[in-house]
Amino acid sequence: xEKHGTRHARPNSSxxxxxxxxxxxxxxxxxxxxxxxxxxxxxxxxxxxxxxxGANWSEVTLPRIFWLSTAFILASSATLQSAVSAFKREHFxxxxxxxxxxxxxxxxxxxxxxxxxxxxxxxxxxxxxSPPGSFIFLISGLHIAHILGGLYFLSxxxxxAIRNRKYLDAYIxxxxxxxxxxxxxxxxxxxxxxxxWILLFAFMIYFHRK
Length: 210
Known about the structure:
210 residues; Four Helix Bundle (Hemerythrin (Met), subunit A); 7 helices
């Protein structure tokens, strides 16, 4: 049974600060990975802009279900932020609920994207016969790979939250600097892939107008 009446003072010792600084390279490595992802997508978009002037280029309509998937991914950022807030306020039940909901919304995003692929294929749009369609598949597929990476780490965080569902266990877990860092990194990465999709989707909407 969780207690919310008493707030515990969170450790703020110099040893805790040192431990946090010791793990700062992980933030740097994540930043490098995100930068690398941005560069990869930029290259794809530049190639797309170059290829769209070709003679065999014919714009295609984006699957409508991509809009629904976008709504899911936006909602997942909100639920994850709620989870982080609950974690900091020691509302561990809410933390578990919001973290699980974030994972579920991420799964729905992937499913909606794949349904969108099926819709495109059903309309005869395939990678081998449609240059613009091939870019949609490529952009969406590569982004899904990023989402799957985020879902893996979200699932680990959720399982750890379930294992520490007793209030005392959850509190001890929550004041551990490495655990705080893990949640911070997962949150940063998830918001990154969400914003990345919004930008990619906006790009595709603009350049796939008929």
